[in-house]
Hints:
CATH superfamily of the domain at 234-377 in chain A: Nutrient germinant receptor protein C, domain 3
Helix content of chain B: 40-55%
Largest sheet of chain B: 5 strands, antiparallel
Radius of gyration of chain B: 30 Å
Order of helices and strands of chain B: HHEEHHEHEEHEEHHEHEEHHHHHHHHH
CATH architecture of the domain at 234-377 in chain A: 2-Layer Sandwich
Number of strands of chain A: 14
Strand order of the largest sheet of chain B: 1-2-4-5-3
Radius of gyration of chain A: 26 Å
Structural class of chain B: alpha+beta
Largest interface: A-B, 25 and 28 residues
Oligomer: heterodimer
Strand content of chain B: 5-15%
Number of helices of chain B: 18
Largest sheet of chain A: 8 strands, mixed
Amino acid sequence: MKYSIKLFLLCLLLLFTAGCWDQLRLNDVDLIYAMGIDKTEEGDFKATVSVPRSTGGQDSGQLTSDIFSTTGKTIRELRVNLDNTIGGLLDSSKIRVILVHRALAEEDLYTILDSFYRDPRAPLASKILITEEKAESLFQGITEKPELISEYFVDLVQSAERDAIVPVVNLQNICPVMLDRGRDFHLPLISSVSSSGGNSLVTGTALFTGKKMSGQLTNNESIIANLLSDIVSKNDKIIMTTNLPDNGQSESHGYITYQIDEYKTKMNIIPKEGSYEAEFDLHLFLNVLEYPPDKLSEHDTVAKLNQDVEDDLQILTDNTVKKLQESGSDLFGIRREIMAFHNDKFDEEEEAWKESYAEMAVNVNVEVEIIHHGIIN
Amino acid sequence: MDKNEKREITLSLNENTSLIENEFKDSQDIKTSYFTFKNKKAAAIFIETLINEEKLSKIIFERLPGVENTPGEISEVISSSTVTTEKNTDKIVDKLLNAYVVIFSEGSDQAICFSVAENLSRDMQEPGNEMVIRGAHNGFIEDLNTNIHLIRKRIANKNLAVKYFKVGKKTNTNIAIVYMNEIANPSLVQEIEKRIRAIESDMIFNPGYMEEFLEDQPSSPFPEMLMTERPDRAMANILDGRVALLTADSPTALILPSGFFTFYQSPDDYNSRFIAGSFYRMIRMFAFFIAIFFPALYIATISYHLEVIPGELIIPIKSSIERIPYPPIIEALIMELTIELIREAGIRLPSPIGQTIGIVGGLVIGDAVVQAGLVSNITIIVVAGTAVASFVVPSPEMNTAVRMLRFPFMFAAASFGYIGISLCFILMVMNLCKLEPFGSPYFAPLAPLQLSGLKDSLIRFPDWKMSKRPKEVHPEQTTSQGPNREWDKNDSGE
C-alpha cells in the first residue's frame, strides 16, 4: 500500500517536472495578421507582415498595426529573421491573409506555402491573394488605415466571394487541388487602384496550372468560369450588364443589368479519335434589375432580350474558355472526368495532356431565360 | 458484589432519592420535591432545566388534594399517557435525562416515570439554503418529534417506518431513520442500521458527523448523502425507496443513498411546467460544467492553445492581458480566492454587514484590481461567471464540492493545457462511476445507463410519465403509479 502510494507520487511528480514545457502564453506572442511575400532583386524572399498592437491599456482598445519587413532565402528563414526583428514571439497561427506577388506565383506557389503546410499550428483558414504589384507596396499603400490591415484584405476578398468573382478557397483547400493532376484552381488577383499604391481592388482571378500561375481572368470571365465549374452558391449575388445591339435607339441607353438568380450547368466529355471533346450546357435564369424601356411582360420583348443577352454571354463564355485553354488551366476538372470515365484513353504524360487540352474542342451552349423583373410589372 | 443489588431500587424512599441524587453528583439542577399522598410520603425527582414545571404541577400537584379520598395509586392520578414504572436505576437515570419525572413513594420498589418535557423550539421557517418559489414553505426544525411529524403528516401510510437509535457514547443523541416498508429495500435498511450501531463516537455533533461515520468513500470530493431541511424533499425521496435519517436537535435530514442527480433536483422543478422544469434542470447541469471547467479552460487557452481563440476575439483578449505581470493561473487564483474570501466573510458576518462586504468585495476590489493592473478584465468575467454558476446547485454540499473541484482542474490546465483538463475530467468521471454509497451506483442513471431513470435526471418528464422508481436504490416496488390520464387516450381515440 505504502509502496504504491510512493510510486504514484513519483509518477505524478515526474509528470509535473515536464509540465509547462510547451507553454505559449498569449501575452508573450506577437500575432501576425497579414503576411505579404515578394521577391527581391537578388532572388531572396521578402516578407512584409502586419502585427496588430493595442495601445492604451485594458479599457481603451486602441488598435494600430505595425508593419515589418525582412528578407531570407527560404520562407522559414524569413520567419526566423522576422522573429528577431519583432520584440515578442512570432505566432503565425492567426494569419488571416497571405499576399503573394505575381512573379513568385508564376515560379511556384507551393514553394512559398510549403512551410505553412508543415506547421501544425498553421493558419489553414487564411486567404491567399495574388498581387499584381509588390505586396509590400500594397501594405504601405492603404491610405485610410483601418484598425487591422488584414481586415481590409479579408473584406476585399469576401465581398468578391459574395459576387461570385472569386472562389471561396483558403490555404487548406487549395493544397489537394494543387497536387491533383485532374483539376486546377484559381485564386483572387488584386492590384492597387493607382500606380502610386493606394487602395486595392480585385481585378480578377489568377489561373494556376499545377503549382504555377499561368494566366488570368477578368472579373466577368471569372464569374462565367465559376458558373461553369458549378461552385457558385445560391446566396451569391451575380450582377452583370449587357450592351444591347440596338445601342442608342432606345431610352435604355442600350444596356440591361440583371442578376443571375439560378443556373444549371452540365459537362459532357466525348472521347474522339486521339483526342476529346467537351460539351457544356449553361442555363442561366435572370432577374432583370434595370431596364428602363420595360415592357418585360410582353413575350416578344423578353424573347428578344433573352436572345441579345445570350449572344453577349456566349461571346464572353467563349473568350473565357479560350483563355483557360491557352493558359492550360483545367478549372473544370476535365482531366479528372477523363480519368474517372474514360480511363482507357487517359494519358499519363503531362506534356501530352497539355497539348491535347489546348487543342481540345470545348463547346459551351449558353441559354438565357428572364424569369423575374423586379417588383413592378 | 453489591453492584447488582444497587441497580435495583428499594422500598425505602430516602434510600432511593439519595441513590438517584448520588448519580448526578454535582448537578444542582436535579430537584427533589416531597409530598404526601394518602399519608404516604412520596418524592418527585426531575431535572428542572429539562422539564416544564407548569405542566408538572398541572399533571400531578394540582390534582393531589382532589383525589385524596378516592381509592387508587399515584400512577392513576397522573394524567399523562407516558406513565411507566421502572425498577432499574440505570433506566431511571436514563428517563430523567430524557425529561421524565420520577416518583418514588414510601414502601414501593417501583418508580413511576412520566414525561413532562419542555419543548423549546423555534417556529417552522423556510430553510434559507433551499429556497423555492412555489411549494411548501415550511422546513424542519431542531426537534426530532416535530420533524417526524412533518414527514408523517405528508405520508399517511401505515408502512411509514420510524426507528429510533441512540448514538454518541456521552451525548446519547436520539436519531431516527424513516423509510417506507415495502418500498425501501430491507437490505439497505439493515446496512444502515448496522452502520449506525457501529458508531463508537462520544458525541454526534451534527448531521455532517453522521455522514462521515456512515459514508462509503470519505475521500471522494462528492457528497454521498443529500442533506435537506425540506420535508417535501425528504418525503419524495422516502417514496423513492430511500431512507431519511433525522438527528435530534438538528433541522437537517440526511437522505441516503443519494445519487449525483438527486442533488440537482429542486422541488421547484415539479411545480413549474415540465418544459420549464427540464430547461432549468439543463441550466443546472450546464452550470455544473461551467463552474468546473470555465477557469481551467481560460487558463489552458491563454497559456497553451491561443490558436483556438477566434481571430476577432483574440485582439481584445490580448490587449486585456497584455500588461498583467502574472501567469494566468496566479491571476485566476487571486480572483478565485478573493471570491471565496468574500463568500466566507459574508456568511460569518451578520446579514446587514454581510451584504456590505459583498458590495465592497465584489465591486470595489473587482474594479480596483483591474485598474491596478493585477488582474485582467477577462479573468474577472471568467471568475464571476464561475462563481455565479457554482451557486446554482440546489444543494450547499454539492456546491462546495463543485467549488473545490475546480482548483485541481485549474492546476492541471496550467501544467498541461487541455490534456490536463481531459485527464482531470477522466479522473472525476471515474470517481463518479466508482462511487456506490450503500450499494446504489452514484452516477445512475447515466452509469449504469437506465433509460427510464433518465426521465428525472437531465430533463424532467411530466409527472405522469415517471411511473418507475429510480432503479439504483433497488426499491421493493418498482412502479410508483399506474397508468394515468386514461381519459385523455379515450377522448382522442374517438
